[in-house]
């Protein structure tokens, strides 16, 4: 189990589609453990295999201490609409408003290949949709009409002056900095 570097925007491997997993072996288990460790270390609420440079249909999501290991996941039903701030561990320092389905039902396999179905709404539903997009080579910025919609949130203490400037900009836009920092990141 290791914390690995997360690929960032511009790396072409983020655009690869995850290939279906057919072997539920030690390699898969190691990949799932690395995804979980790296997600928790970031910290974030989800991470998909392409973000670690593995073009496989595998992602993890963790919301409110519930960890979901998703192998070959797909959305089988979706309902409603929800617009909220969203960020990505592969696009550090920014969030944006993204419209998602309010609730989704996901069918996936676990690490030993057993099928299961899980529903997620709001924050959890957003995390599922964000990670499943990564498995299609898709990033949330693809939904934005313009890069101007990206909202800088600072990088959390690495540069205090930059963080203060980001907070001032958020307030200017009428967004609570704490809310922006609590936005979903996966
Ligand atoms: Ni992401």
Your description of this structure?
The protein has a single domain, classed as Alpha-Beta Complex (Peptide Deformylase). 25% of the residues lie in helices and 29% in strands. It has four helices and nine strands; from the N terminus they run αβββββββαβααβ. The strands form two sheets. Strands 1-2-3-6-7 form a five-stranded antiparallel beta sheet, sandwiched between helices. It binds nickel (II) ion. Residues 88-90, 130, 134, 186 line the site of nickel (II) ion.
Entry keywords:
single chain; about 190 residues; Peptide Deformylase; five-stranded antiparallel beta sheet; four-stranded mixed beta sheet; 4 helices; 9 strands; globular; binds nickel (II) ion
SS elements, strand count = 9
The geometry reads as globular
Q: Which regions are unreliable across 5 or more consecutive residues at pLDDT < 50?
A: none
By CATH, the superfamily comes out as: Peptide deformylase
Quickly give the structural class: alpha+beta
Rounded to the nearest angstrom, the radius of gyration is 16 Å
Residues in helix, %: 25-40%
Strand content: 25-35%
């Amino acid at each position: 189990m290791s914390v690995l570097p997360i690929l960032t925007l511009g790396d072409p491997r983020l655009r690869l589609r995850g290939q279906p997993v057919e072997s539920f072996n030690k390699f898969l288990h190691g990949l799932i453990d690395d995804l979980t460790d790296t997600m928790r270390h970031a910290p974030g609420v989800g991470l998909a295999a392409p973000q670690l440079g593995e073009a496989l249909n595998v992602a993890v999501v963790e919301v409110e201490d519930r960890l979901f290991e998703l192998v070959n996941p797909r959305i089988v039903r979706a309902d409603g609409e929800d617009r909220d701030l969203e960020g990505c561990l592969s696009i550090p320092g920014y969030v944006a408003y993204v419209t998602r389905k309010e609730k989704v039902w996901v069918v996936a396999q676990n690490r030993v290949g057993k099928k299961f179905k899980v529903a997620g709404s709001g924050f959890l539903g957003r995390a599922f949709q964000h990670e499943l997009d990564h498995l299609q080579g898709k990033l949330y910025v693809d939904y934005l009409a313009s890069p101007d919609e990206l909202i800088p949130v600072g990088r959390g203490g690495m540069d205090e002056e930059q963080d203060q400037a980001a907070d001032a900009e958020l307030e200017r836009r009428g967004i609570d900095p704490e809310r922006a920092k609590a936005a979903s990141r996966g």
